[in-house]
Amino acid sequence: MPLPPFQRFLDEQRDPVWRFLVASVGRDAADDCFQETFLAAMQAYPRLRHGEHLRAWVLTIAHRKAIDHHRARRRAAVPVGATPDVAAPEPPAADDETWRRVRDLPARQRAVLLLRYAGDLPHRDVAAALGCSEEASRQAAREGLKRLRHEIGDH
Amino acid sequence: MTLPPPIPPLDPQAVAAAAARFAAQAPADVRYAELDTPVGRVVAVMTRKGLARLDYEDWFGGLDAVLEDTAAKLSPRILRGGAALDPVARELDEYFEGRRRAFDIPIDWTLVPPFGRRVLQATARIPYGEVATYGEVATRAGSPGGARATGNALGANPVPIVVPCHRVVRAGGLLGGYTGGVERKQRLLAVERGERALFG
């Protein structure tokens, strides 16, 4: 399949990227990460040789942008002792409780669950995105789900 | 809490707004717009250098076909809309209203080989409302006797209307062919004779 015009790529991938980012960074930060994801995709786009696996490709970029976002947020965290005059904003309603718990998992489990369930990618593509084996991806998913079940007391 | 985690909900307005914000600012190599004219819908394709294509949408097989061909020949970094298209829409409107006799839009000649460029530049010098024969244009392009090659170059004109290949006709009063169909050629020549009311 030849590489589609970027406009069609944007039209086809914007919904999966948005869902992934809302789960990964929350609704408030999703918009900025969305802009950075598609900007990076546009810059790299002419180097793609064909139009296969575009969703896995763009979600890999979105995943990196989400990691950048989390790192920047930690750097910008208010130092202990400071007294912020406003509380941290509450996550909006659409920001599902389950995904908030996923965001607190260890990095590998978090990444696998996000790409597998928010990005709806098969484990083969999740593994390629994270540079691990398919079995390692499945294993991390099992561990992550087990931990979540444990947290909610559902053994 | 449900496991495995459900696919997150989608707010269609939020994602549409995010996509629109991206498209407005992104550094695309190519911008396009579909424009309705009295001779049908055209797809205008702009690069940073200027207008690279103006395709009759039906003649080319639809918008997707135009964009796929553009992706292959110019760049896949194509987005819809953008301020660069505004002068194209405005100048076409003025032309079809009879208020514009020449186009000021810059042209990107990337898709035109050297001989074709000479032919089209000679064609661009035919005054509004007048016609020239294929042989005359061949001579002006520096290729006397090259009427057939000139016809081919005109048939490959990527920017019809703006480069007025409709003003090139056969000797002896015959109209000759036109990319987009001979009816369009007749209409464009009628516009330039001031016969707008015929198909307003």
- Average residue-wise pLDDT of chain B: 94
Alpha carbon gap, first and last residue of chain A: 46 Å
Q: How many helical elements of chain A?
A: 7
| Oligomeric composition of the shown chains | heterodimer
Helix and strand element order of chain A: HHHHHHH
User: Stretches of chain B where pLDDT falls below 50 for ≥5 residues?
Assistant: none
CATH superfamily caption of the largest domain in chain B: Winged helix-like DNA-binding domain superfamily/Winged helix DNA-binding domain
Radius of gyration of chain B: 20 Å
Spatial arrangement of strands, main beta sheet of chain B = 3-2-1-4
Query: Which strand-content bin applies to the residues of chain A?
Result: under 5%
What does this 3D model show about the protein?
The complex is a heterodimer of chains A (155) and B (200). Chain A has 155 residues and is mainly α. Chain A has a single domain, classed as Butyryl-CoA Dehydrogenase, subunit A, domain 3, CATH 1.20.140. Helix content of chain A is 68%, strand content 0%. Chain A has 7 helices and no strands. Chain A has helices at 6-25, 27-44, 54-75, 97-103, 107-118, 123-130, 134-151. In chain A, α2 (27-44) crosses α3 (54-75). The longest helix of chain A has 22 residues, at 54-75. The radius of gyration of chain A is 17 Å and the shape is globular. Chain B has 200 residues and is α/β, with parallel strands linked by helices. Chain B folds into 2 domains: 26-96, 2-Layer Sandwich (Double Stranded RNA Binding Domain); 114-198, Arc Repressor Mutant, subunit A, CATH 1.10.10. Chain B contains 8 helices and 6 strands. Chain B has helices spanning 12-25, 57-60, 63-73, 86-96, 114-124, 134-140, 147-155, 182-192, and strands at residues 30-37, 40-46, 51-56, 78-80, 132-133, 168-169. Chain B has a 4-stranded mixed β-sheet, with helices on both faces. In chain B, strands 5-6 form a two-stranded parallel ribbon. Chain B starts with 11 loop residues before the first helix and ends in an 8-residue tail after the last helix. The model of chain B has no long low-confidence stretch (mean pLDDT 94). The interface between A and B is large, with 43 and 35 residues.
